[in-house]
Design a protein that fits this description.
This protein is an alpha+beta fold and 576 residues long. The protein has 2 domains: 121 residues, Immunoglobulins (Immunoglobulin-like), CATH 2.60.40; 284 residues, Glycosyltransferase, CATH 1.50.10.10. 39% of the residues lie in helices and 11% in strands. The protein has 16 helices and 15 strands. Strands 2, 4, 5, 8, 9 and 10 form a 6-stranded mixed β-sheet that branches. Strand 4 and strand 5 form a beta hairpin. The longest helix is centred in the first third of the chain and has 25 residues. It is globular. The two termini are 38 Å apart. The protein binds ligand 9MR (2 copies). One ligand 9MR binds next to loops.
């Protein structure tokens, strides 16, 4: 027996060696150009993850290889699947499944006739830098301080927008006076600050901190507060929270936004000097603030109790204002034309505020108010800042079982699992293994917000299918998509270079500010009027152009970076 085994072993190794050496001999040289027809996660894969590249118009020979980019030897050969027509992507594709390759390394996928893919890695914590980069992106959005070279590198810039004496617009109900409302992050490619879209991303960032408090420690982000002994992540989040607190009126209500009347030109912050105003006051801003301030209380409790108490007091006061003013909708006043973030359906905001305040205080007032309306568990692309808040409330309740009755907890648990099941099923059927089939403004955030639902199901049940769903959604964002682009600036080989972002457009540097997520394909093409040029009638997944005027497909925004950070952090913690 022994002899036969040995002989077999010898035969096999010889065969493998022969196979490999013959491959090596025929390996084409790596040139500087990589095949655009091979789509994959340009950063890389966790060793145990499903690994599927998409080959567009692949050859009939159906052969592919995974090549170690250093040793230039073939680690795996495989057969492409038979061709499929993908409608959303507008492509004929074959799949190269290299899941079996789990050895850490840097690789290239080779398809004879097409060439090599971009290099990618297989290793543990493969998304660590991208995760930190997506948080550092927030630092680059900071208002009211100079970005110093030592923190910002070549993207350093002058101080701008002190916002220390901002007049009230009559839409606030005040006819005179000023407030000081400094700091915070610029919302997006524009320089305004909006409470709805400060609170919503903060909600997602805080969720990550509560679920995985150890992910970011001090000195990991190289920001001004690094070295103060506290998590750099908390320091960065506090920069935004501090601003949000200044937007609360004496009676508890929140002003809606701090903004110019019209969008500024594509200039550096210090050249954007139009008068800014405090505009509007309403229920969505107030409830969203109440919710995220209650989270801030919990997150900061152990590191800065005075600050935590300040946040909780502000949260309760905001909630009380909303009780007195339960349906004050915001719309832009006639003379203000910047982001509206208007929403006349307050149910999601109520649900979120009740959930966060309940968990922060255990006060039965919030428990009693929370059950008022049925909850919709269905994820809908495009809802984003108008309605995703209900999910944030649900996620917090799922993490705090004791706060609610068992039947209520079970209904949320079952609802989220069923919702995640639908998303997983969709992702298996849809182009590029991602879960959405309708591409709105900010579609990349929809993919990631859906992934967050799958992530909660994974936390509840631990079934691999949910983790796979989240990983494949991230593969889509990082390059396995119909544009072949890794949508996070600075991370990947082909990344957006012309984002709709005023600093990046005006700073004279080739590289855009890094760590910012492009909005992604948007089949509505609202920016054609603004000068974006698309190919004729693009299919939904190709409705994206790397052009500066494309604010509907290629802007960046806080509420897109937020689920990016959440999903990256989740994956870093949960993936092997
Ligand atoms: O720069 C603005 C961007 O931040 C907004 O998301 C977008 C939609 O509201 O509008 C952009 O501003 C454009 C304006 O709407 C129309 N004129 C050109 C402006 C800059 O491209
Ligand atoms: O994300 C917003 C999107 O859902 C809207 O359709 C769009 C037009 O109103 O506005 C988007 O938000 C922008 C905001 O109004 C201003 N700052 C930039 C935001 C991202 O483009």
């Amino acid at each position: 027996m022994k002899g036969i085994v040995k002989l077999l072993f010898l035969c096999c190794t010889t065969a493998i060696l022969m196979l490999c050496s013959s491959c090596e001999e025929s390996l084409p040289p790596i040139s500087d150009t990589f095949s655009e027809q091979i789509r994959l996660n340009q950063i890389g894969y966790y060793p145990a993850a499903i690994k599927k590249a998409v080959i567009v118009d692949g050859p009939e020979t159906q052969k592919f290889m995974v090549v170690d980019s250093v040793a230039m030897n073939v680690l795996l050969t495989g057969t492409l699947s038979s061709a499929e027509d993908w409608k959303l992507a507008g492509e004929t594709v074959r799949i190269a499944d290299f899941t079996k390759l789990t050895t850490p390394g840097t690789y290239l996928l080779l398809v004879p006739d097409l060439g090599y893919s971009y290099p990618f890695k297989i290793k543990k914590n493969v998304l660590h830098e991208a995760f930190l980069g997506s948080i550092k992106g927030l630092y680059y959005q900071r208002v009211g301080i100079p970005l110093k070279k030592e923190h910002a590198g070549k993207w350093h810039r002058d101080i701008a927008h002190l916002d220390d004496s901002i007049p009230f617009h009559p839409s606030t109900g005040k006819t005179s006076g000023y407030i000081s409302s400094p700091g915070g992050w610029y919302d997006a490619g524009d320089y305004n600050k909006y409470i709805v879209n400060a609170a919503f991303p903060l909600g997602q960032f805080y969720l990550l901190q509560e679920q995985y408090p150890e992910l970011v420690s001090d000195n990991m982000l190289n920001i001004p507060e690094s070295g103060n002994g506290r998590s750099d992540y908390l320091d960065e989040l506090k920069y935004e929270m501090d601003w949000a607190l200044t937007m609360q009126d004496g009676d508890g209500g929140l002003f809606h936004k701090l903004t110019t009347k019209n969008f500024e030109g594509m200039v550096m912050p210090s050249a954007a000097t139009s008068q800014r105003y405090i505009v509007g006051k309403g229920t969505t801003a107030t409830l969203d603030f109440a919710a995220c301030a209650a989270q801030a209380y919990r997150v900061f409790k152990t590191v800065d109790s005075a600050y935590a108490e300040k946040c909780l007091t502000a949260a309760k006061k905001a909630y009380d204002w909303a009780m007195e003013n339960p349906a004050v909708a915001f719309t832009n006043p006639e003379d203000v034309h910047t982001g509206q973030y208007g929403d006349a359906d307050f149910e999601d905001e109520w649900f979120w505020a009740n959930a966060e305040l309940l968990v922060a205080t255990q006060d039965s007032v919030y428990r009693n108010n929370i059950k008022k309306k049925a909850i919709d568990f269905n994820f809908k692309a495009g809802e984003s800042w108008t309605a995703y808040m209900r999910f944030l409330g649900m996620f917090t309740l799922l993490d705090n079982k004791e706060a609610i009755s068992e039947p209520f907890y079970n209904s949320i648990k079952n609802g989220i699992i069923a919702s995640a099941d639908r998303l997983v099923t969709s992702a298996q059927e849809l182009d590029y293994f991602q879960p959405i089939d309708d591409f709105h403004w900010g579609s990349n955030s929809d993919v990631l917000n859906a992934a967050m639902v799958m992530a909660q199901a994974y936390r509840l049940k631990g079934s691999p299918k949910y983790l796979i769903g989240v990983q494949q959604a991230m593969d889509y964002i990082l390059g396995n998509n119909a544009m072949g682009v890794s949508y996070l600036t600075g991370f990947g080989d082909k990344t957006p270079m012309f984002i709709h972002h005023r600093q990046s457009a005006a700073d004279g540097l080739e590289d855009p500010v890094p760590g910012l997520l492009s909005g992604g394909p948007n089949s509505r093409l609202q920016d054609v009027a603004g000068g974006a040029v698309y190919p004729e009638n693009p299919v939904p997944m190709q409705s994206w152009v790397d052009q500066e005027p494309s604010y509907a497909s290629n802007e960046i925004c806080l509420n897109w970076n937020a689920p990016m950070t959440y999903v990256l952090g989740f994956l870093e913690h949960e993936s092997d």
